[in-house]
User: What shape does this take?
Amino acid sequence: MTERYAIPTADLIDKLGTAKARLAPLLEEVKAMEEEVKARGLGRHEGTLYAATVSAGERTTLDLEAVREKLGAKWCVKHSNVTGYIRLNINVKKTALLKLVAE
Assistant: This one.
């Protein structure tokens, strides 16, 4: 437990969920604005305070199913890098939804 959030886990989860819920509409707005800037074309776009550059490129991905079929699963395992990660999902509980609707 860090000093910054020296509160019970349940309270921390509720605080996190509330913050994410407040942030969600802003993230939707940001995504819509990003799509609009991209739609205005490639190149540099100037604002008063910020500038944005829209560029295009290609990303190559490997068809792992085809590689496994051609070279075998053992070859894939031998030539793969594995990295660990910790993921956090937070979802609103049904009881919280009912409480929010009632308010």
Q: What stands out?
A: Helices lie at 9-39, 64-71, 73-78, 94-102.
